[in-house]
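Data deposition worksheet. Section B asks for the primary sequence of the deposited chain exactly as it was used as input, without tags or linkers unless they were present during the calculation. Section C holds the resulting structure in token form. Section D is free text for depositor observations; keep each observation to a single sentence. Incomplete worksheets are returned to the depositor.
Section A, Depositor: J.P.
Section B:
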Amino acid sequence: MHDKALPPTISAAEFDVFHDDPAAWRDVLVSIASTYTAEPLRQMSEGTVLVGLAGRHLVIKLFPPFLRDHFEFERAALVRLDGQLRVSTPSLIADGERNGWPYLVMTQLAGDGLTAAWPGLSEAQKCKLLTSLGELIAQVHALPVGDLERFAPPWNDFIRMQRANCHNRQARTGLPRHLLDQLPEFIAGELPEGPPVILTGEYTPMNLLVRGADLVGLYDFGDGLVGPREYDWLGPLCFLAAGHSARCEAFMSGIGASLDQACRMRLLRQLLLHRYSNLAAQIAMRDWQQARSFEALVARIWP
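Section C:
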């Protein structure tokens, strides 16, 4: 279906401007939502794509054409994960397209965002929740990958591209100069390996729902990949556990693994090569920039 509000081609920079002008895309989301519900639409400012909540029941996600691979992965992941986990995930209601922009319609989940809830939890509750999160990730990783591999870049190609772009990205996002100087040699080292699993890349407070101290929901799979399981450990270990040995241990006990020094070093390399690597935003602890080497940084963030 044609919609003149949506240009058939748009660059990433142009989309960022479009995304930050809600009036420019409100009518499109309202039109899509009206096909599935009479409830009013509320636009969301967060997220990589255009998102609206239709009443209390539906979510509309509209993807720019250059993120069609994200749309395809999320659509497949919604089907793969629905009803398979210890927590709720959105159910796919429909998908479609407007002027070359694909969209998904899915159910809303009940629960409170972990970002807002986390500061009010006791340390014991935080550790309990991290153990539950580790168990959830292990449950996802135990599922068959199935056709999701078709919608993700080959892992070796992904890593090759991330290595090639790493220095520029880390310089742009504020990695300290003394660490930048050590970066090329460090990222050439050993990375996590293992059987390919479903990676959502999104086990962060922004994409988790809780009820009290209980984990109840997981959403947002457009950034997913297929590769070694350790990639998915980075969200919890950085956003929620950085600098706290008890939290790290609680999370790893849920996963069913341990963090030895070699594993820590592999994880730090993978963090630097993450699709959205930005240590200043991802490491939830103060003064990590003062570490004089990557070995010292590992000791600070994952003691």
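Section D:
The CA atoms of residues 204 and 236 lie 6 Å apart.
The chain has 13 helices and ten strands.
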